[in-house]
Protein 1
Amino acid sequence: MSRNPSAKKYRPSTTLPLAREDGGGRFPGFDVMAHEKHWDTATRSAVHERLHGQPAVRFFSQVEEATAKCLLDRLVGQRAELGDETVDLARMVDARLAENQTDGWHYDTMPRDSEAWRASLAALNADAHDRFGHDFAECEVDDQRDLLETVRTWGEDRWHDLPPAQVWSLWTRYAATAFYSHPAVWNEIGFGGPAYPRGYKAIGIDKREPYEVPDARPHDDPLRRPGPDREAHNNARHTTGQGGRAPSSSRGDRGNSGSSSDADSRSERDASSGSSGQASSASSGSSSQGSNGSSGETSNGSSGETSEGKTS
């Protein structure tokens, strides 16, 4: 049997440092990389690159990289002790921007993605200096959350001459696309990885493939878990329909306005992100964008969006 000499041995049981109360341990023993023999060569190579072959930073400056890393980690609730497995989201986003692998469009109220990332990271650092006296990356985690929550709930049309809802959409789109394309996150949500060329045979609600692991706590829905924090969050969503932001017909929000706190981000991912993982399974890091009827945003080529770059 021939072996690929360039193939790198995968470390088994790659899991993220997610506490049980935040949804961790729902798919015990599941390891998506144990099934890589069923993938074709191109798919296997793409997934291994995400595990072992992230390129050096080419787009971000040193300060921008540090800011982006903390921003992206806060958005997905990623906070780890030294030695814990984490997803290097900053490098994944940097690679997309360096190679102009955008979503193929941008809001007509926003600059191109590359320019928007630089401007929004600079604005975030400016806010950090105004409130705490140093760069965003040097702030305490709770202070970083507060700064992000300020952007998410900004009540004016402009934040540092950028539309805040569209900035939030930019950040969360790139964060989710990168995060849910990584095998460690597939393990967290029990996603079996690319189905090509193996395909599926267990079709139907609650049907599982032989290699899939059942949810260890199927009735533990974080979005319905009692507690003051959850009640406040649900009440805000019920009142505004946008996760606490006052509704405005001028905002083109894509529905990515959930709370930026670590626990909230993790809980919501655990309850609803299985499809997100599948959408980004074997792609090169760019999520597919469907129409959703949000004000200020329409299908590609219509008012509210401008074609940009190339899709990946």
Note: Residues 69 and 250 are 30 Å apart (CA to CA).
Protein 2
Amino acid sequence: MKVSLIVSSYGERDLLGKTLQSLDAQTADPEAYEVVVVEGTDGSDSSAAMKNRGIRKARYAICCFLNEGVLLAPDAVESLLQVHGMPNRVCIGRIHGLFQPDHHPALPLLRRIYESADPLKCFKHPLLPTFGDGRQKDLEAFSTSSTPWLLLNAALFSVESSVLHEVGLFDEDFRDQGFEDRELGIRLWQKGCLFRFEPRFRGLIIRNRQRLAPGDADRVRLVEKHRALEVELSSIQTEHNPFSLIKHFKQAISLISMDYPGIGEAIPPMLTEKRLAVGCHSDRLAHEVGATDSFTMNSTTFQSSSDGVGACRVVETLGLLSGANDQHYDTVVVTDSWRIVPHALLQPFFKEMQRIGKTVYLLSSSQLEVRNQLMQSFQEIEQIHSFQIKTHAVQESYTIYELC
């Protein structure tokens, strides 16, 4: 198997030269790869159009995308080819320096090496691990992510050429760089491709020339094109996105009760059960219900839950569902967080809870009934969505319902 390395160039000759120098120094057999440089013809050339031209010129079975200015580690191509030993793989690499601030303490030294005659010495420098990939936290949880396409970035990823042609290449209607990668990733994900993060497939970027802040037009286009993915698209942050949860998350911190006194008596922990706690809650709730996993709704709750839950696995999620993957639970306990999920997302959220849990409990604090217009009521739920809810237990400050 061979790979076509497709390099998008925006006219920065010095950056392109560094990238080509690293490609020439690969430890892989020179016959195992080719380099295809695609230059923007004019200011109206979109990133998607450039990459599609590269795909059409590529001769080999694998297409690997990177931008000018990215140095590839000497063994990167070798590592890449190992991942693609199986079909339908999308390989995402580690990019040292991606999304790192200009004031990073390691940047001045690494920049001097990068700009020297031997930039590949950067990969041997002891400071390089500190100059990490800004997506590191998400990459570490990659195997459990239900939205792996969010991490797709043209700075370094690869796909089989035949699969790219099958799903239809990059959508050239995306004008700014960034979302055309994610949109392609959604189609690859829908096709059933396996996304794989390979830490040995790595590069370095010092001068980030990517336009990584796409405008709202591209965000809206992504949502409009894939409306069926309501829950997954909740992570696309824009005021024009009808599925945006940002304002609801802000409400969650101030309005959702963090503790539920007596919850351990109403839903006693069972040593033999696998249990999931979902939403905004403290470590106390997770401990009292005997949760084995906890999906938190924001960074505030994540920190609170992480401080004292012991063996409970804590995952910070945005759409509440990332992390579930194909895991299943005997019991799922959802805090008041469900009440600030928008109507458009509530039905798929409930369906997902029922899919992964044999028994699903919904907590509802009495003091939140009329405090904010974002709060859901059970009457609305039963009218708008065909879900049945029955009372499990009534506590002094909250009620526990069971989702049927």
Note: Residues 210-214, 237-248, 318-324, 369-376 have pLDDT under 50 and may be disordered.
Protein 3
Amino acid sequence: MSLTSLSLSLSLANQSGFTSKNIVMAVACVLVGLVVVGVGGFLYYKYRDYKKKISSLQNALHAMTADLDDAQQTTMIKNLKAELEAERARLAGQLREVETKREENKSMLQAVKQKIREATFDRREDLLREKEQLLNAQWKLDETKKNNEGQMLFIEKQLEPIDIRLSRVNSGKKDV
């Protein structure tokens, strides 16, 4: 650029009301504007990246919470299964005990029936009362056996879905 063109530009700037101060101020404003836009764009992209990271962390947290819930449910189910199996074992023991008492009662009843056939008239009344008590005891033992078997059946029905659920968890499948 020649000096004449520069002086011509300055004279045009002076005529249009622009001074060199105004030009410098305008250039500074443009530069500040560009810096602000650049920083704004940078912050926008950083915000978007952080938003993606936060979203992925929230998803991971949700998955871990779901896994924790599944683990807690599995633990609760295993505890329930252990309690049901302990109750089933207790009932099985009671059933064996009831069966033993029933056999004893049955043999005692047979012995009393035999004594009744052989007894004299005055002794028969005592033996008949004893037979009645043994029959009542037999009835109570039968009822106890029936109740215990019903409870065991109920426990078996409760254990079926628990076993299915635990086998699915152990094989890595989820319940639907």
Note: The longest helix spans residues 20-118.
Protein 4
Amino acid sequence: MAQMMSTYINTTFEVKTKYVDIEKERDEARSHCQGNFYQGDLARLEDITNSRQGSIRVWDGNVYKLSPPITIKGCTNDTGLTKHKIPRMKLWKDAAAQCQALCNTSTFAIRDTDCHCLSDSITPADDSHCLPMLARTPAQNSKNTEAKTVFQTVTLEISDVPALNKCIAANGLNPCNFELRNCQDRLQMECKLGTSARTVWAEAAYGCNSAKSFPSPVRDNCPPDSSVWFGGFRDLQYSPGNM
């Protein structure tokens, strides 16, 4: 049960957003918006983020799915073939997943609320220009105003059983391959410059930042006879629409 934000058309044909202080299940909330407002529906996440006051749990009108596997690649100053705006998000994984959903390219980059759809042939920049992203909100950077953090859709076959596992690790078998694991498992993270402490995926990624390095990207091979995290993950992404 949660409250709701509704979008609707007012008498001057403007699109408005209104908070409704009634708790309902999601389908009932959508029906309430559609039945009580002219061209009403549940508001999009962007409209909720821009208008909500305080910490209130509300339904939104977006369709959510788990993203295809994503790997962090590094840093670039390149500008995207196309560029999209994404909501300002607290976690860089969320921002990367939403950028992936908007791009028709396998390589993409984020900086603050900018999502850049890139060609696969990017010009690398020094990773240190983007490292603050791992410790702050998505793509914030203090060294280079053009730096963008680059991600890529993983094309390798990776086991997704059970389907809720979201973080990518080498499985320690020979021949070595990758698998999706529970992000709360405790492993070392393979960083571009060594390894981080043995801990859960998110903290291990931050550990790479402390060592002035990004997590290693998922690649065609991995260290034999080892179980380690890599910089690959899945996350929820959304598209506006009805369920």
Note: Helices lie at 26-36, 45-51, 92-102, 132-135, 201-210.
